[in-house]
Design goal:
This protein is an alpha+beta fold. The protein contains eight helices and 18 strands. Helix 5 runs parallel beside helix 6 and helix 6 crosses helix 7.
């Protein structure tokens, strides 16, 4: 298992966050989940901006004096240097990195909290000889919580490798790759299906998550646009624009498409995959993302959905993913702590959770108890 090192960055004084094959981050608002994602994204941006391109991968072998912007890349909006240094920091430094039992790489940034810089400057690097973490791969997939909603069409963009963009803005283009004949590896094909073409597999998984829904893509090279047309039980054989069918389909499409094409050994980070979805669909998205993780992609999820977590538990119980490949990081606040508490929760082979701390998806029981008391009164 890998660990994300976060030292003196925003709400964390010093934390090591477990990163497994499937990592699910849960907890109340304002307890460090987004900060953890931002730390991973900022470390990735540092590698891209300051590293070397060697044999098809990024390598960070030295500090080269380049500054790393705090805003823009990967939808980061961290403000200026005074906002990212922890309020309890004893020295004006931030350290981010990854480590496991065999290897480590961390970057320490100098921070001038007396000024309002729009960047941090890497000042030192700690690393072992081998650094084989997924973050060095060219392919790095991230979907922001604020994704593109329904659009009449989407602009075509150049990309170094097939992806749906940080907000799903190139989903139509991705679905239209090779006229929909871009191939999905066998391990991610929906059970019982034969075609491995991307558009076909997207439709099989979409039908699993949202019964009766399917899509097709029309690409116009002359106008540099691609358009997603959607069919459901009310528009059979007469697809309509995505703008006529709400947000749920547009929000889930980039997740399905990315999960099906993501390269093995790479990161796929998704914020709030449950957004705009019915509870049954949320559960099935959990099962889909567990399948993607089981295929060799390092999936990191930030979620507020107990239904999605239920889907992950079902996947473990069904042996669709090994239980030791799943970690749930529960973020909470304990009185008098100067940083969030992060409790790793594991899952048994039967899909049972190793712990159920107070505040961990127990609001239904709390509400039922209050309602019961009110009815008695």
């Amino acid at each position: 298992m890998n660990h994300l090192k976060i030292n003196q960055f925003k709400c964390f004084v010093d934390a090591d966050i477990n990163i497994n094959a499937l990592t699910v981050m849960v907890g109340a608002n304002g307890n460090g989940k987004s900060t953890t994602i931002q730390a991973l994204l900022y470390f990735r941006r540092t590698i891209e901006h300051c590293g070397e391109w060697i044999n098809g991968e990024y390598r960070l072998n030295k500090v080269n004096g380049l500054n790393v912007q705090l805003n823009g890349a990967y939808c980061l909006a961290l403000g200026n240097s005074s906002f990212v240094l922890n309020r309890n920091a004893e020295v004006n430094e931030i350290t981010l990195g990854l480590f496991n039992e065999q290897e480590e790489i961390t970057v320490t940034y100098e921070v001038d909290n007396r000024d309002t810089k729009l960047y941090l400057t890497p000042k030192s690097l700690t690393k072992t000889e081998a650094s084989n973490f997924p973050i060095f791969k060219q392919e790095f997939y991230y979907l922001n919580a604020e994704r593109f909603g329904p659009r009449v069409n989407q602009q075509l963009h150049f990309f170094d490798y097939p992806n749906a963009g940080w907000q799903g803005e190139t989903t139509a283009q991705l679905l239209g790759l090779e006229n929909g004949y871009y191939k999905v590896e066998d391990g991610r094909r929906f059970d019982g299906t034969q075609s491995n073409y991307l558009i076909d597999q997207v439709n099989h998984w979409l039908d699993f998550i949202m019964k009766g829904v399917k899509v097709r893509v029309e690409t116009s090279p002359n106008t540099l646009t691609a358009q997603i047309l959607i069919e459901n039980q009310f528009t059979v054989s007469d697809p309509t624009l995505s703008t006529n069918l709400g947000f749920g389909i547009s929000y889930i499409l980039p997740i399905i498409a990315t999960g099906l094409i993501a390269k093995r050994g790479c990161f796929f980070i998704v914020e709030n995959p449950e957004a705009h979805l019915h509870p049954s669909a949320q559960s099935k998205v959990g099962r889909f993302l567990a399948m993607v993780a089981n295929s060799g992609v390092n999936v990191v999820i930030e979620t507020h959905s107990d239904h999605l977590l239920n889907g992950v538990q079902i996947s473990v119980a069904n042996k669709a993913i090994q239980n030791d490949g799943v970690t749930i990081n529960y973020f909470s606040h304990k009185e008098n702590n100067i940083q969030p508490d992060v409790q790793p929760i594991s899952i048994t082979t039967k899909g049972e959770l190793s712990a159920w701390p107070k505040g961990f998806f127990d609001q239904t029981q709390v509400d039922f108890a209050e309602l019961f008391n009110l009815r008695k009164g």
